[in-house]
Amino acid sequence: MKGQYHAYIFDLDGTLYRGEDPIPGASDYVRKIVNRGARVFYATNNSSKTREQVAQKLKGMGFPAETNDVLSSGYTTARHLSKKGQASVFVVGEPGLVQTLREHGLKVVNADDAGRVSPTALSAEYLVVGLCKTALSYDLLDAAMQVGLKGAEFLATNADMTFPLEAGKLSPGAGSIVELLKACIGREPIVVGKPNPRMILDALWEHKISAQNTLVVGDRMDTDVVAGKKAGCDTALVLSGVTPKPPADVISFGSVVELP
User: Fold this and answer.
1) Residues taking part in catalysis
2) What 3-state DSSP class applies to 72?
3) What is the DSSP letter of 171?
4) Among 246, 229, 168, 160, which Cα is nearest to 237's?
5) Axis-axis angle for helices 73-82, 95-103 (nearest 10)
6) Residues 6+ apart with CB under 8 A from 105
7) Tens digit of pLDDT per residue, the chain (260 long)?
8) Strands in the chain per DSSP E
């Protein structure tokens, strides 16, 4: 592993913060590498917030962050679907995801003006499923199932079964909802977020950054590390989130674990 990189891509939940608690020392470390001239991106599978909201949260915790520094599964999903024109979308997710899709010209068929989803439509070209905490109900899941059974293309912003919160707590992630709908619909979704390397590759291409000079840092072997490796980047695992101890096939250096 190199001592310094031109770019760093950090996961958020479990890597830089847990819920509303920043990981001790994380903001100091990120500011240090930014001050020496490295480019920093923040790549999250969590689709519940807009990129602007994520950047504001990071700033509030002392991280140097602007909207264009944020890579998210919701944003990547919206960009992917926007290439298909003004498509109709049924959403299982939070208002942040709805807003992101609408900002890319997509028609969300089951959300009100505030972005709150409900089981008000039973047909759409696409079914998009992300983390859904505030509006999740049996009726919403039933409506999403009907949309899927009618042939809507099924996309998951991510498949993380859990996400880390304060005090070591884990809560159900988008993947738990995706698995339920996958069983009901009988089809595998397209998973847009990590371990799909799309959001990482998009950022590297847009900013003309070499994957060989980029380090991807995260707390999940199966998403963060796999996505980074698929993108051709070096990867590092931190033990502050979902992964409590280093797997047997990795080499530890302090609080971070380097993969061979």
Assistant:
1) 11, 13
2) strand
3) E
4) 246
5) 30
6) 82, 85, 86
7) 566 899 999 999 999 999 999 999 999 999 999 999 999 999 999 999 999 999 999 999 999 999 999 999 999 999 999 988 889 999 999 999 999 999 999 999 999 999 999 999 889 999 999 999 999 999 999 999 999 999 999 999 999 999 889 988 999 999 999 999 999 999 999 999 999 999 999 999 999 999 999 999 999 999 999 999 999 999 999 988 888 777 766 544 434 444 33
8) 7-10, 17-18, 21-22, 39-44, 70-72, 88-92, 107-108, 126-129, 153-156, 162-164, 170-172, 190-191, 214-218, 234-238, 251-253, 256-258
Q: Which residues contact 146 (CB under 8 A, 6 or more apart)?
A: 122
Question: Which helix H or strand E contains 119, and what residues bound it?
Answer: none
From the DSSP assignment, how many helices (H) and strands (E) are in the chain? 8, 16
The sheet with strand 256-258 has its strands ordered as 70-72, 39-44, 7-10, 214-218, 234-238, 256-258, 251-253
Question: What is the set of domains in the chain, with CATH numbers?
Answer: 7-73+194-258 (3.40.50.1000), 84-191 (3.40.50.1000)
Task: Assess contact for 131 and 16: CB atoms under 8 A.
Answer: no
Contact 179, 154 (CB under 8 A): no
CA–CA gap between residue 155 and residue 183 (Å, rounded): 14
